Amino acid sequence: MDIQREGVVEAKRRRRILIGSAGAIAVLLVTVGLSRLKPAAPSIERATVWIDTVKRGPMLREVKGTGTLVPEEIRWIPAGTEGRVERILVEAGSRVEPDTVILELSNPELELQAMDAEAQLREVKAQYDELAVRLESERLQAAATAAQIQGDYEQAKLDAEMKEQMAKEGLTSNLALQAAQFQARRASNRHEIEQKRQAIAGDAIKAQLAVQRSQVERQAALARLKRSQYVALRVRAGVAGVLQLVNAEVGQRVSPGTNLARVAQPEKLKAVVRVPETQAKDVQLGHKAVVDTRNGLVAAHVVRVDPAVKEGTVTVDLALDDVLPKGARPDLTVDGTIEIERLDDVLFVGRPASAQPESTVGLFRLAIGEAEAARVRVKLGRASVSTVEVVEGLAEGDRVIVSDTSEWDAHDRVRID
Question: What CA–CA distances, in Å, run from 397 to 53, 54, 60, 175, 332?
């Protein structure tokens, strides 16, 4: 006999409702909790990043630039006159002396002009000699005339003195005395006039010779010019050194002033490096430097800083203080490191990628255990080639990622695997 059980169905129904409500609430809570979770931190392989430790102590500020070795003395050899390149006698890379002929030019017109100028010089010299002889002859003739006049004056003077003495003794008449004195005065006047004429004639001779001499000098200068231009057709080095460049080809027509060759002294080299303009503002004359020739290090110092900026860099000349290693030659690529200043006691770290001095950047600082790193704001100060001063945001002993982390800019923390 079945016994009816009351309330069982309602109990089951209530239980199902409670279980369903609890499940719904659990799903809702899980959904809300998951929505509030932060996205998972990206993973970084330790071997792919550069991690550095913040240190305190002395920091050497340096700037670095790349450039080449350049001769201190470079001589460009220009064409002295117009001509056609006939022969190239010395090739680039050869050792030359001051009188070494590098190449030969030809100019028939110039050769003719040189010969004509020398012929005209000989002609004006002959004219000068002829004038000098003629004027000397005239001078001697005038001198003879002056001597004759002076003799007449002396004779007239003696006659006048003698007549005066005789008149005192009563041996001659006053009329004879007066006549003798008149002749003496007339001879004196002639003598005085002749002396003045002689002086004027001497000045005239000098003036005529000076005019003719100036003609000779002018023609001599013209002849020397034409001769030097003709001689310059054989282009010489002018200095001892190494021929670096021959800027001409056989058959080429060149005009005066065209640079035909370049000679340098390889024993006297300097380093010319290009420094980023953001770093060049601290470079001063006399700063110490080191030049890396890829075959050794050479001490140097700054001797010139170009005031102009070209393509974002400033050219700095470094004079070498030590002997260059073997194999160093002009146009060799070198690296120059210039010492700016020494900071005695500062907090510093390896320079982060793309970090600029006196700026604020975000760096990932490793947590204890170095399994994670969180982003912190760091204020930087003065910078060097590979290090930078830490003003605030980090403490001594902190370890930070200083390599490029731009791909994780959207994250505030990363995992280190």
Answer: 6, 5, 19, 138, 42
